[in-house]
Design goal:
With 649 residues, the chain is an alpha+beta fold. It has 16 helices and 22 strands. Helix content is 47%, strand content 24%. The two termini are 69 Å apart.
């Protein structure tokens, strides 16, 4: 699987490279063939002009030899030759002795020879050679000023079989290139005429040439070893061809990169799959070992996943509840409506993140109390597709809480009995007074009955006083009975003013015995609260009792206990506030953090449970109990209870 794409890619690259090389070689061969063909044509074209000029010069020599007016004949004929644009720059007519008879043009600054060349044209070797050979002869090339070079053709003149002179035609290398090399050829090549000494002249439109694409041909007989050379320009390849080649190269590179990327992706995928398998095995083992149930649902409430702990919790198998329509069979019939409401609230994202307590029904019919927390399931695009709920079995916790609640009730009942036991002497004195008064009034009534002349009106006042004292004793007994009797907690509408007065009434004897003044301040129109009257009275009894005991070391004139009840608004909930203020020695700073702890007490005979029980009672009413130091000495215990709180479950 790995070698096949690699082999195919290698073959593709080799084929592409071969195709490009063959295409390049073909273009080079075509270009070279065209170059040779063009150079052969140019060489023939120049030679044609040179040959035609020889013929015309020979004709001029014949005309000059046979004409009586030779000088008049030379000028128009030479002018015609020079205007033919065949590279001629000057025509001279020499007589037999080598003397210049005529010239056209008569003089030129460009014809000044440079270097070792000599201007003595009649004395040149070429002239003697042409005279000896009796035919046109070309001279060697010589340089002249302005970077040009020239060569000459010597055409002998004969008259009646005798040598009569020499016609010398001068060719300019520059003019030959300018006049005989067409423009379209100069656009393709740099045309130059060279000899052993270097470049004599060139015609080029650009400077950049392809040195590997050149061709030269001998330029004889003129110049004695001249070479006509052509060098091709660096051709600009076509845009379409370059684009095609570039596309092929890019595709090849892309294919190579794709293969490399695919290999890396496959390696990464194998690693990811291996990691996913390990992660899945780890998560499966973790979920199977959890004691907490997991329940995944889609947005329509259909169950997508449950873990083994949840199945053990409800007694159903995963295959029995997964993908089943909502509501599932394990919802308790009594709690089904509330569960559906909370589920819909979760789907609408209005449920509290703290979760809620519910009740499920086991397959065998027993109730399973659970705490359910839900979190949204979000896919990789950030879109929610369901909910994952963690379900914690709190059945045992509920049982333990019920036992704790019963024990706390027993402890509260015991605390009330202990409080009454501590106040027994005061309560006995409180009951003794009305009983003694009843006894005294009844004795008085009997004495009056035994006397003669008793009027009925005399007994009415005494009997009313007996009834009043009996009611007073009955009220004391009723308050004691209601305070210490054991009953289930009852939450109903309560009047805090009545609770305060009843709690304070239990301490009438204690107040007189310790010379304590109790001041009760209740705000007007104090609202009703929902709570257990007996438990709230127990809180106030404990706080009043602690306040009276705290003022034992205080002077008798300063023993004032204030009970202040008011309502206040904290945030959006209206609170009922009760403050119990004493003028005692206060609480040491080192003990402030421990006064509400169980079994902590500063009294030698105390149990240390009073304030702890008080705080538990207030918190069960969704309220708060705390301590504040009183300015000037003493303590303030404050409690707040929501006025519109819901009843405890």
């Amino acid at each position: 699987m790995w070698w096949l794409p690699r082999t195919a890619l290698a073959i593709f690259l080799i084929s592409l490279t071969a195709l490009l090389w063959i295409s390049w070689r073909t273009d080079m061969e075509d270009q070279r063939t065209t170059l040779i063909s063009d150079m052969l044509w140019l060489e023939q074209e120049i030679r044609f002009h040179l040959t035609r000029n020889e013929e015309r010069i020979q004709q001029l020599a014949i005309d000059l030899a046979n004409s009586n007016k030779a000088l008049r004949t030379f000028t128009p004929s030479a002018s015609s030759l020079l205007s033919n644009q065949s590279g001629l720059s000057q025509i001279l007519w020499l007589d037999a002795s080598g003397t210049l008879r005529a010239a056209l043009p008569t003089s030129t600054t460009d014809a000044v020879a440079v270097g070792e060349a000599t201007p003595a044209i009649p004395m040149t070797e070429t002239l003697r050679l042409a005279r000896a050979l009796l035919k046109p002869t070309y001279s060697p090339t010589y340089a002249i000023v302005h970077g040009d070079a020239q060569f000459e053709v010597h055409v002998p003149q004969f008259s009646s079989g005798h040598y009569g002179g020499m016609i010398v035609a001068t060719y300019s290398i520059r003019r030959i290139l300018d006049e005989l090399v067409p423009w379209w050829l100069a656009e393709r090549y740099r045309i130059s005429i060279v000899d052993d000494g270097g470049v004599l002249g060139k015609k080029s439109l650009v400077t950049a040439v392809n040195s590997q694409m050149s061709y030269q041909i001998a330029f004889d007989p003129p110049g004695h070893g001249l070479i006509l050379r052509a060098e091709a320009y660096e051709l600009k390849t076509s845009f379409a061809r370059n684009l095609l080649i570039l596309t092929a190269v890019v595709l090849a590179v892309t294919m190579l990169w794709s293969l490399w990327a695919l290999r890396r992706h496959m390696q990464w995928r194998l690693v990811a799959e291996q990691a996913l398998r390990k992660e899945y095995a780890f998560r499966t083992a973790m979920e199977d070992s959890l004691a907490t149930g997991l329940l995944a649902r889609d947005l329509d409430g259909r169950i997508m996943y449950v873990n083994p702990a949840f199945c053990r919790m409800i007694g159903y198998g995963a295959e029995e509840i997964v993908s089943q329509e909502s509501p599932p069979p394990f919802w308790d019939s009594a709690a089904k409506a509330g569960n559906l409401y909370r589920m819909n609230g979760q789907n609408d994202r209005t449920t509290s993140s703290s979760g809620f307590e519910t009740q499920l029904r086991h397959r065998d019919g027993r109730a399973v109390h659970c705490m359910l927390h839900a979190a949204p399931l979000v896919d990789g695009d950030g879109k929610q597709f369901g909910w994952l709920s963690s379900v914690l079995d709190i059945t045992e916790n509920k049982r333990i809480e019920e036992i704790a609640r019963q024990q706390e009730e027993q402890l509260q009942f015991t605390a009330r009995l202990v409080a009454m036991g501590e106040m027994a002497s005061s309560l006995a004195h409180e009951l003794n007074q009305p009983l003694a008064a009843i006894s005294s009034y009844s004795t008085g009534c009997l004495n009056r009955i035994e006397q003669a002349g008793l009027q009925q009106a005399d007994l009415v006042e005494a009997l009313k006083k007996i009834g009043s004292q009996a009611q007073r004793a009955g009220a004391v007994i009723r308050r004691i009975y209601e305070f210490v009797r054991r009953s289930e907690p009852r939450h109903a509408s309560c009047n805090m003013e009545e609770i305060i007065k009843d709690a304070a009434g239990l301490f009438d004897g204690e107040v007189r015995k310790n010379n304590v003044e109790i001041r009760i301040e209740v705000a007007e129109a104090l609202p009703q609260i929902q709570g257990d009257r007996v438990l709230l009275e127990q809180v106030l009894v404990n706080l009043i009792k602690n306040g009276i005991e705290a003022m034992r070391a205080t002077g008798t004139d300063d023993r004032v206990l204030e009970i202040i009840a008011s309502s206040s608004a904290e945030t959006s909930d209206q609170q009922l506030c009760v403050a119990v203020c004493d003028c005692g020695s206060g609480i040491a700073e080192r003990d402030l953090d421990k006064i509400f702890m169980p079994f902590f007490t500063t009294k030698s005979e105390g149990m240390g449970m009073g304030l702890n029980i008080c705080r538990s009672i207030i918190e069960s009413h969704y309220g708060r109990l705390w301590h504040e130091p009183k300015p000037g000495g003493g303590s303030i215990f404050k409690l707040t209870i929501p006025i519109r709180s819901k009843l405890p479950a």
